[in-house]
Design brief:
CATH superfamily of one domain: Immunoglobulin FC, subunit C
GO cellular component, one term: multivesicular body
Order of helices and strands: HH
Strand content: under 5%
Protein name: Vta1 C-terminal domain-containing protein
Largest sheet: none
Oligomer: single chain
Number of helices: 2
CATH class of one domain: Mainly Alpha
Radius of gyration: 41 Å
Number of strands: 0
């Protein structure tokens, strides 16, 4: 240890060799760690002695007769009437109309495919110009915002004229 420079390692922990080792220390001489609390729930049956109240097992089984339970409760149990069918299955309505393919469906060909892809790309460019305009407005750059909106509007009008 260099006492003149002021740099030194911390001292190791001190142990007391006279402390008896018990079972929970597992041979760690002198060191004690907290363990799990020693509590046997079966021995503490008096609810006045305990702050913790755990729920017990239900006293009624699901197939027990519930007609006599909680007569004064706000929740009432109504058994099914004798004539009622308890196993109702949903009835699906019969549709007499047959659905046919819509006549508005556009069939994709090589020519229409190019138009669809071109339109999709143009819409993406319009969205980009709109986002740039919004960004310019966030920085109060009105000239750039106006220019981007005009570019997007011109692209939108060109798509509208083609269709």
């Amino acid at each position: 240890m260099d006492s003149q420079s002021g740099f030194a390692l911390p001292k190791p922990p001190q142990t007391n060799p006279q402390i008896d080792l018990d079972e929970e220390n597992d041979g760690n001489s002198g060191f004690t760690l907290p363990g799990a609390p020693k509590f046997d729930p079966s021995k503490n049956t008096d609810p006045a002695d305990s702050d913790i109240h755990l729920p017990g097992a239900p006293k009624l089984l699901p197939d027990d007769d519930l007609t006599n339970v909680n007569k004064n409760s706000s929740i009432k149990v109504f058994p099914p009437k004798n004539g009622e069918n308890t196993n109702l299955t949903p009835v699906r309505p019969q549709s007499s109309l047959q659905r046919s393919a819509s006549s508005n469906v556009v069939h994709v060909t090589k020519d229409t495919l190019h138009t669809i892809v071109d339109t999709t790309e143009q819409i993406g460019k319009i969205q980009k110009h709109a986002k740039f305009a919004i960004s310019a407005l966030n920085y109060e750059d009105l000239g750039t915002a106006e220019a981007e909106l005009i570019k997007g509007l011109e692209l939108l009008r060109s798509i509208k004229e083609k269709s």
